Every structure is written in structure tokens, then in C-alpha cells.
């Protein structure tokens, strides 16, 4: 991996290649993974080391449910909004209702590790492990959220997990698989590592190139030990979060961009567009993308008129059980 860190926009451009690439050749897959690793390594050096890396979710009913759990999130991190917390809560919400506690939890694509730490508390895990491809993210997670014998983190590949068969009761994966070049390898590893009776909680941004939901359903249909318990289109819930973060809180969003990129207009304008895309601005319905801040207007206009990079605007959720 190159030691040279990429700009935010350079990293985003490389990730675009990963989003649009499917392959079966292991060598080609490694080339794509290197791009993902380099991109997220660069981002990990520029963002707050306890940041969530997902688009979040917003719904009043779900927010009330979460708040009624009386979970003290501020003990983990006092600086973040509720939206990413709600997406992580939604992922395991059915298991909380089932009181599926004292189990072994694996998060594949754990990022900075805060989501695993949060969900391990919510479902009172016996043990929790977070895996991510990116060394810097795993390092952040280990430094901030490790708990000896209870919560740990490991650098590893989602398509080749260094874990024993049937070694986890719950596997989660959120907003990550659209970057995997060999999706069926990932699904096979989930099926192998998941224990009988266990659950796979899966949510992601659909991309036309990857067609993850369709491929998941084909994979499940090919097995006699997996069944779909629940599937849900949560697009509007995710869009509500993006709208609140970028449009309603546009001044805060703009100040965040300045804190990341500085105030030089030429650099800021270029990087700001990539940040807005990474945070999901073009996933919004076009008629919602209107801002008052002068510097954001060209970005909003481009998001309204340019084709969305993922194709069909869909954010899906699946709960799969191994029987």
C-alpha cells in the first residue's frame, strides 16, 4: 500500500471504481481491495477517530424506542448525532425484541469500531469481534473501544474470514458490501461462520453494478440451511437522515467541511463536493436538494441534475437465520 495519503476526492474516485467492479479472478479482486484500503486509510487519517461511517436513519418511532432503552451513548462518544446510532440499532432491533442476549457477535466492516461497541452493549453479548480491511480503522477501534475478553478488533478480509466454522451467533454488515468485488465469497463466509440458529443482519446501499439484494436472495435460495426472516426497504428512513444532516443542518455541514479541508476556496469547493456525495446528497429525491448557503448551491444543483452514482435509489435491510 502506498504511504502517500490521498485527498478526500481522490479517495472517493477510487471507491467509485470498487463500487462498479464485480470479478471472479482473485488477483483482480486484490487490486480492487487495495484501492478500498488506500481510500479508507486516507479518510481514517482525516476524520475523528470515533466517527461512524454510515448514512444513518431517521424515524420518530424508532428514535423513541432507542431512547427508551436508556443506553448512555455519550459514554462512548459525546460528539455525534443520533442518526448513525439509529441505523445500527435498527440492524439488531428484532434481536433485542427477541431478547437474543448473551451471544457471540461479529461485525464485518466495523470501521472505527463504535457501532460494534454500541451493539455489543445493546444485545449484552458474551463476546464481540469487529473485522475491517483497513488497518488504520482497526487501530482506531482497538485504541478506543477494546475491552479485554469482551470486545476486540481484527484486520481481515470479508471474503476470507480467519474464523472457525459456526463460531458466531450474530453477524452484522451495514453499508459495506457494495465495495466487495466478490460478493458471493462474502456470503459464503457468512454462511460458514454463522452458527445454527444464529442471525445475519444485513443492510446496504443498492448499486446497479452489484445488485446485492438479488444476489443475496439467490444465495439463500441455493442453501437449505438459510432462510429470510425479514426484508425491508428502508430508503426513506435513510433519506430522512441524509436530509437532516446535509440540508436542514447545512451550516453545520459546511463548517465541518472547512474543519476537514480548510478555507481555501479552490480546495474547499473540490473536496466539498466529494464529501457531500460520500454523505449521500445525491441519494435524496432531487426536489429535496435545496440549500441557502451560497458555497453549497453549485453542489446542490449538480446533485439535482446529475445521475445518481448507484443507479436505483434503494437502501435494503435483511434478517437471515441459519436453521
Automatic annotation (TrEMBL):
<dbReference type="InterPro" id="IPR050447">
    <property type="entry name" value="Erg6_SMT_methyltransf"/>
</dbReference>
<keyword id="KW-0489">Methyltransferase</keyword>
<protein>
    <submittedName>
        <fullName>Methyltransferase domain-containing protein</fullName>
        <ecNumber>2.1.1.-</ecNumber>
    </submittedName>
</protein>
<dbReference type="GO" id="GO:0003838">
    <property type="term" value="F:sterol 24-C-methyltransferase activity"/>
</dbReference>
<dbReference type="GO" id="GO:0016126">
    <property type="term" value="P:sterol biosynthetic process"/>
</dbReference>
<dbReference type="InterPro" id="IPR013216">
    <property type="entry name" value="Methyltransf_11"/>
</dbReference>
<dbReference type="GO" id="GO:0032259">
    <property type="term" value="P:methylation"/>
</dbReference>
<keyword id="KW-0808">Transferase</keyword>
<feature type="domain" description="Methyltransferase type 11">
    <location>
        <begin position="106"/>
        <end position="201"/>
    </location>
</feature>
<dbReference type="Pfam" id="PF08241">
    <property type="entry name" value="Methyltransf_11"/>
</dbReference>
<dbReference type="InterPro" id="IPR029063">
    <property type="entry name" value="SAM-dependent_MTases_sf"/>
</dbReference>
Amino acid at each position: 500500500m502506498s504511504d502517500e495519503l490521498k485527498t478526500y476526492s481522490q479517495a472517493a474516485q477510487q471507491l467509485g471504481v470498487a463500487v462498479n467492479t464485480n470479478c471472479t479472478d482473485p488477483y483482480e479482486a486484490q487490486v480492487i481491495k487495495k484501492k478500498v484500503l488506500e481510500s479508507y486509510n486516507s479518510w481514517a487519517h482525516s476524520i475523528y477517530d470515533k466517527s461512524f461511517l454510515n448514512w444513518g436513519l431517521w424515524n420518530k418511532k424508532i428514535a423513541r424506542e432507542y431512547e427508551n432503552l436508556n443506553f448512555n451513548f455519550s459514554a462512548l462518544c459525546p460528539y455525534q448525532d443520533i442518526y448513525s446510532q439509529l441505523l445500527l440499532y435498527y440492524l439488531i432491533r428484532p434481536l433485542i425484541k427477541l431478547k437474543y442476549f448473551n451471544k457471540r457477535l461479529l461485525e464485518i466492516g466495523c470501521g472505527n469500531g463504535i457501532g460494534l461497541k454500541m451493539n455489543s452493549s445493546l444485545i449484552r453479548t458474551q463476546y464481540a469481534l469487529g473485522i475491517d480491511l483497513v488497518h488504520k480503522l482497526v487501530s482506531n477501534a482497538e485504541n478506543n473501544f477494546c475491552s479485554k475478553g469482551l470486545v476486540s478488533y481484527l484486520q481481515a478480509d470479508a471474503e476470507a474470514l480467519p474464523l472457525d466454522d459456526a463460531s458466531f451467533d450474530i453477524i452484522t454488515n451495514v453499508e459495506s458490501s457494495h465495495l466487495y468485488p466478490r460478493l458471493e465469497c462474502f456470503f459464503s463466509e457468512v454462511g460458514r461462520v454463522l452458527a445454527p440458529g444464529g442471525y445475519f443482519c444485513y443492510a446496504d446501499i443498492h448499486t446497479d453494478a452489484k445488485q446485492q439484494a438479488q444476489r443475496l436472495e439467490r444465495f439463500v435460495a441455493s442453501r437449505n440451511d438459510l432462510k429470510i426472516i425479514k426484508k425491508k426497504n428502508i430508503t426513506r428512513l435513510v433519506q430522512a437522515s441524509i436530509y437532516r444532516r446535509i440540508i436542514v443542518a447545512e451550516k453545520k455541514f459546511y463548517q465541518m467541511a472547512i474543519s476537514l479541508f480548510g478555507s481555501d476556496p479552490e480546495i474547499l469547493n473540490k473536496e466539498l463536493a466529494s464529501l457531500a456525495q460520500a454523505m449521500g446528497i445525491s441519494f435524496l429525491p432531487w426536489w429535496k436538494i435545496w440549500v441557502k448557503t451560497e458555497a453549497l448551491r453549485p453542489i446542490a444543483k449538480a446533485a439535482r441534475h446529475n445521475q445518481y452514482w448507484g443507479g436505483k435509489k434503494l437502501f435494503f435491510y435483511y434478517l437471515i437465520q441459519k436453521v
